[in-house]
Amino acid sequence: MSNIRKHLTYSNVMVTVLAFIVLGGTAWAVAKNSVGSKQIKAGAVKTADIKDQAITAAKVQDGSLGVADLAPGVIPAEDTATVRSASATVPLECTETNAGPNLYFVNCNGRATVTAQCESGEHATGGGYLTPPADSTPPISNASVGDSRPEPASGTPDAWTITAFGNGSNTGTTPGVVRPSDPEVTVYAVCSR
Questions:
Q1: What Å distances lie between residue 6 and 1, 9, 11, 65, CA to CA?
Q2: Would you say 106 and 139 are in contact if contact means Cβ atoms under 8 Å apart?
Q3: Which band of pLDDT confidence, cut at 50, 70 and 90, is reported for residue 116?
Q4: What are phi and psi of 77, to 5 degrees?
Q5: Residue 118 domain-assigned?
Q6: Domains in the chain: how many in total?
């Protein structure tokens, strides 16, 4: 051992250490799945770092892509949708009652089925409706929808249909109280070819 110490100098030790580094190199090992979101700096992953075909539809957030983000021809031009509409009034039938001296009431109810039809060669892929805002001053009338559906109910629908219910009221001090107006409803059909 003393023989080795005689030849042990700073330069001999440094040459030996450098020989190990040069010949052996340095190695870093990263355990599988040890790098996660916390270890990745924001904006560090670039497009070039992502393998081709690595991002699938399941990894894309719903509603995050627009037509401009899709390749030409992905949505064929013939698959465009058109909104068709139809408006109608709900006819009210009114009854006037006398609730006492100088107090008369008019109560009204009605029902209507309204359909928005697609054009020939189109089919309905959806639909909806619009009812008027409720009156705030008498005479009061409004409408509600109890049923909104594709038509026909079975097979390929080519229209959208609603069943609308109207009601209204008014008061007065003499017979012949002013009747509320019939409310108007609009139905929409989303039609595609």
A1: 9, 8, 13, 75
A2: yes
A3: very high
A4: -60, -30
A5: yes
A6: 1
